[in-house]
Design goal:
Elements: H1 15-28, E1 37-39, H2 40-47, H3 51-63, E2 67-70, E3 74-77, H4 82-104, H5 109-122, H6 128-145, H7 149-170, H8 173-191, H9 195-219
Antiparallel strand pairs: 1-3, 2-3
Length: 220
């Protein structure tokens, strides 16, 4: 199979946490692709651990919707149908729009300044993984201001699941240019403490991503 898992970047308190993070990161960055099979023995050998933490990690990732467990100590990277993508983005629009509306009433000067810095950096970012990190930083900064950690956890889970389908689209130059425009409209709404506009712009931004990813997949 020739697994490619990227580089380790941080310490972990447990082997299971280490394996979970390496596999999740490999899936979200496209090193492991939808439909690709994962064998426990191969993953364990590659990462230098026993099968036990690999099995536990796979159970965590299955619960997150990133892989599907199969018999005989294996799993496959999850695949999403267009209908599932539409459903995910419908739910994300509701949740993230609500978080943005709440955040608009709670943003302080420090967060506004940080968002401006992220916007400036994302406008010049060219490397896809770096661009995605900045994109997540932008949205997470907003949603954290809403003060709804359980809702944010659901959003992150849905975002990770959707990443399996939309990565090739969201890292395209065309999308990145459109996304920057959407980010600026969201930022303006937040800077003006306009909750209704923040919610509307966030939902529109997500809908454009969903529509664009679906078109991109049909063309492919």
């Amino acid at each position: 199979m020739g697994l490619r898992l990227g580089q380790e970047t941080k310490p972990f308190p447990s082997r299971q946490g280490f394996v979970t993070d390496r596999l999740r990161d490999a899936i979200l960055k496209g090193y492991l692709t939808p439909g690709q099979r994962l064998e426990q023995n191969e993953v364990a050998s590659l990462l230098g651990v026993s099968r036990s933490p690999v099995r536990e990690a796979m159970q965590v990732l299955a619960a997150e919707g990133l892989i599907t467990l199969e018999p005989h100590h294996s799993a496959v990277v999850a695949e999403l149908s267009p209908q599932e993508v539409v459903e995910i983005y419908h739910v994300r629009g509701i949740l993230e729009g609500g978080l943005a509306a709440l955040a608009a009433t709670r943003m302080d000067a420090a967060r506004i300044a940080h968002l401006q810095c992220v916007l400036d950096e994302i406008s010049t970012a060219t490397e896809p993984d770096h661009w995605l990190e900045l994109n997540h930083e932008f949205h997470n900064t907003i949603y954290q201001a809403a003060g709804r950690p359980r809702t944010l956890a659901i959003v992150v889970s849905l975002r990770n699941t959707a990443a399996l389908f939309i990565r090739s689209f969201v890292t395209s130059l065309e999308h990145r240019e459109d996304s920057i425009k959407g980010h600026r409209l969201i930022f303006e709404a937040l800077a003006n403490a306009d909750a209704a506009a923040a919610e509307a712009q966030t939902r529109q931004h997500l809908q454009l991503v969903c529509d664009g990813a679906l078109v991109c997949r049909r063309v492919d």
